[in-house]
Specification:
Number of domains: 1
Order of helices and strands: HEEEEHHEH
CATH class: Alpha Beta
Number of helices: 4
Largest sheet: 5 strands, mixed
CATH architecture: 2-Layer Sandwich
Shape: globular
Number of strands: 5
Distance between the termini: 16 Å
CATH topology: Nonspecific Lipid-transfer Protein, Chain A
Structural class: alpha+beta
Radius of gyration: 12 Å
Length: 102
């Protein structure tokens, strides 16, 4: 599975009730692919391209991103060594479990 495939599958996997009342927008830039993940009152929409003003931007290679998702790469070390760049880690941490990233 690629990072793009993983991100596009988030709406099917995520538990809407855990996201009710929450609103955010993420931009993912993975190996030249750009995707936006929007959470709005329990609903998740993933679209290609960067739309709107993101609260959190994640940049990585496909291998490093999927390594973290699959548990093969330590997320803390990936961020500290610059393999994954996150401009607002606190925002991502709030949603990571619902997105299936942890």
């Amino acid at each position: 599975m690629t990072a793009k495939e993983f991100l596009l599958s988030i709406p099917e996997k995520a538990k809407g009730e855990s996201l009710e009342g929450m609103d955010t927008l993420f931009h993912f830039e993975i190996d030249g692919e750009e995707l936006s993940v929007k959470v709005e009152d329990g609903a998740i929409n993933v679209s290609e391209g960067l739309e709107g003003d993101a609260k959190c931007i994640i940049k990585s290679t496909n291998d490093n991103f999927m390594g973290v998702v699959n548990g093969d790469v330590n997320p803390t070390m990936a961020v500290l060594t610059g393999k994954i760049k996150i401009n607002n880690p606190a925002e991502l941490i709030k949603y990571a479990k619902s997105f299936g990233m942890m």
